[in-house]
Amino acid sequence: MNIAHSSNTPLNASAGGPRYSPAQIALHWVIGLAIIVMLGIGLYMVGLPKGLDFKSSLINFHKSLGMTVFLLVLVRIVVRLVAGRPPLPPMPAWQRAAAIMTQGLLYVAMIVMPLTGYLGSTFNKLATRFWGIPLPMWGWDDPGLRRIFFTVHTFAAWILIALIMLHVAGALKHQLIDRDRLMERMLP
């Protein structure tokens, strides 16, 4: 018996067990924080009146950060394929399914969001800039296509917000209720 074990802290096979790689941990937190910033900027800027220089600057920043997040997500997917992931701790089948589904949908949303934002921007008369560098204009001015891509972009944003809330709620449940130290696998 472990003498240091208190009755308030359950023993757990995952405690001190496998963790995500340092690259996965860094990418998780950088991407997570960037997405929260992106969502905040996106929700804020849509309410600004058209024609403001500040709004144009904010839109360009939003686009550049979105494309950066997209590239980081692609790197994260490759790192996950190479490094794998630690196994989930024992839990009921429905929780395991919910965790796997939420994580999968988060990856889908992290791909759909920047793609639809970029595609919506390509069907415009204005060039898209990536941190000030103009990208080639391969699209044409098409309000119908632009509206479709930006509608999907907006819908995906609300889904992403819900998925982030589920992800955080699940992590907090594991940390505060289950006390299985699951979050330690993703902490620096």
Give a quick precis of the structure.
The chain crosses the membrane at residues 26-45, 65-83, 104-128, 148-172. 64% of the residues lie in helices and 2% in strands.
Description:
The protein is built from 4 helices and 2 strands; from the N terminus they run H-H-H-E-E-H. It is mainly alpha-helical and 188 residues long. The chain has a single domain, classed as Up-down Bundle (Fumarate Reductase Cytochrome B subunit). The chain has a two-stranded antiparallel sheet. A hairpin with a 2-residue loop joins strand 1 and strand 2 (133-134). The longest helix has 36 residues, at 143-178. The protein starts with 21 loop residues before the first helix and ends in a 10-residue tail after the last helix. InterPro entries: Cyt_b561_bac/Ni-Hgenase, Cytochrome_b561_oxidase, Di-haem_cyt_TM. Keywords: Cell membrane, Electron transport, Heme, Iron, Membrane, Metal-binding, Transmembrane, Transmembrane helix, Transport. It comes from Caballeronia udeis.
